[in-house]
Amino acid sequence: MLIKVAFSSVNYKDMLAVQTKGGVINNYPMIPGIDLSGTVVSSNKSKFTQGQKVIVTGFQTGMTHTGGYSEYARVPAEWVVALPEGLSLHDAMVIGTAGFTAALSIMTLESKGMSPDKDQHILVTGASGGVGSVAIQLLKASGYKNIHALTRDQGEIDKLLSIGASDVLLTSDVLPEKQKVLDKQKFHYVLDAVGGEVASGLLPQIYYGGSMSMCGNAGGIQFNSTVMPFILRGISVLGVDSVNFPIQERDAIWQRFAGEWHIMSQALVKDVVMEELSEVFENIKAGSHTGRHILKII
Ligand SMILES: NC(=O)c1ccc[n+]([C@@H]2O[C@H](COP(=O)([O-])OP(=O)(O)OC[C@H]3O[C@@H](n4cnc5c(N)ncnc54)[C@H](OP(=O)(O)O)[C@@H]3O)[C@@H](O)[C@H]2O)c1
What we know:
By secondary structure, the chain is an alpha/beta fold. It is 28% helix and 23% strand. The chain has helices spanning 12-17, 89-110, 130-141, 157-162, 171-174, 196-202, 228-233, 250-258, 277-286; strands at residues 2-10, 35-42, 53-57, 72-74, 80-82, 121-124, 146-151, 167-170, 187-192, 206-214, 236-239, 269-272, 292-296.
């Protein structure tokens, strides 16, 4: 299917895609951009018609197939979702892979008992980043009350409160100097986008029977734990993957973004043009990226 791209977005993986040996693109030439929204130019599948507005996130977009950092992209129709009524092409990219992953993380935690009807404390890590900032907004929109945002950056506190965090915790205050086997129980559920020492240090702080979803490695790929949180507290660690999440189940989630999850706080959204991308990538690499950057193609 050929799509005229209107917008793309910037995700952590897009930064990796433009690094030498970043592990995302293996054959060149290739156009990066794991997300795109735009209009169908031509399609060999009757499900989509010329002129229809569509969204593509994940699968091999921007990896083995031309991605969103381009005026046109060619991808298999099996990767494409129709833009739901109520969302603009720009809105769809404010969500993008980061927001879709935030939604999957919430749904995964809810499958293990997280609920807005219970008095639970939920911690979101990497809070000022793409996944974290959208997760906070979705949790707020879902009616959650005790949404704790974890950030390394004191300067982000006001913005995180404005998008729905109940309070903001600094990583340096929450992580113990030396990781404990079992620590004081503080959180019922942890939505983690950071991995590394952050996830390792938080696992022992989860209440009996709680869970942590893991989708990211912005803070490193190592995850250190003993078996104790699992065998003495019944804690679950739940993996989240947005890339190969089944296409059949995607429409329903995008419908939620157009309805109950219509978040779109502009506090952490910035539009950029192609010439500004390298600066955004540098910020992601340095760990100082905040919110969602939307690439304007049209
Ligand atoms: N599994 C999947 O399908 C999937 C999908 C999307 C994303 N991801 C992964 O999820 C992670 C987040 O993606 P994103 O697009 O939200 O990235 P992002 O916008 O760069 O956000 C990452 C956030 O993590 C925190 N952080 C960065 N470096 C850190 C470090 N060294 N130590 C501790 N915290 C650090 C920062 O938040 P603070 O400054 O607020 O602490 C940063 O804003 C990435 O690893 C990405 O690859 C996975």
